[in-house]
Specification:
single chain; 252 residues; alpha+beta; 4-stranded mixed beta sheet
Length: 252
């Protein structure tokens, strides 16, 4: 069984048995892997204090391609991202990004994706409190684009006319793109103001945006993912994030 050492990001952690943990990892060299950290819950374990979601480091793994569960031999922590766990919206947002990765990424190496995901988590962790929701939304759309699932918003689905900057369009999430006014008559879709379309374009490109309203953008993201990426099986983290946002908006 070969031993490999690779950059790794912990996406999820589960307790296993009385002393161990199972990790879902995004790695630089081997994509998404599940690994058991034997004895990780023991007080004197080498893994004590480092096996937390969104922690990043160098993982040493025993990998056997015929197995779904690998063995974690070591983990050298380089970034803990503990601030994500101290804020409900940040944690829920990071969980959303992690779940998207877990539902879409295989075992193939993708260093660019690894860098994109870790950068997204860093941006969520560092965001001002008032801007956290917008940053999470932006990074989710940017991740969708990085994975190759970006909606078509630069030209009309039917007539292929280029969509002008600031033009109001109809977004057909099932078809995966937008229609101009002439083609939208009688076709399914949701009206998108020009400023909202411009914001979506910026988010897909990784450009910082400021949003006064986010509800419509979450609606589009959730339904687009559900139809084109998740095959009708919704992300649990969407409900978690929705509850976190509702809690944060309630008066004390």
């Amino acid at each position: 069984m070969p031993q490999v050492t690779t950059g790794a990001l912990i996406l999820q952690v589960f307790e296993y048995g009385e002393t161990s943990r199972i990790l879902r990892l995004l790695t630089v060299a081997h994509g998404v892997q599940s690994a058991i950290a034997k004895g990780a819950r023991r007080p004197r374990s080498q893994f004590a204090g480092v096996m937390e979601p969104f922690a990043e480091g160098m993982a040493t793994l025993y990998i056997k391609e015929s197995r779904d569960l690998q063995t974690l031999a070591g983990f050298e922590l380089t970034r803990s991202r503990q601030a994500l766990g101290r804020d409900l919206i940040r944690f829920a947002g990071a969980s959303l990004l992690s779940e998207i990765v877990l539902r879409t990424v295989g075992v193939e190496p993708n260093p660019e994706l690894f860098e994109s995901v870790t950068t997204a988590l860093d941006r969520v962790e560092a965001a001002d409190s008032a801007a956290t929701e917008t940053v999470v939304l932006s990074e989710a759309w940017r991740l969708v684009a990085s994975l190759g699932f970006a909606p078509g918003i630069d030209e009309c689905l039917d007539c292929a006319r280029e969509i002008d900057a600031g033009e109001e369009v109809s977004f057909d999430y099932a078809a995966g793109g937008v229609r101009c006014d002439d083609c939208a008559r009688g076709a399914p879709g949701r009206r998108i103001p020009g400023r909202a379309l411009a914001a979506l374009r910026d988010m897909l490109l990784g450009v910082d945006v400021q949003l006064d309203r986010t509800q419509g953008h979450w609606w589009l993201l959730e339904r687009f993912l559900d139809h084109h990426v998740l095959e009708g099986s919704p992300l649990r983290s969407f409900a978690f994030l929705s509850d976190a946002l509702a809690t944060s908006s309630c008066p004390d």
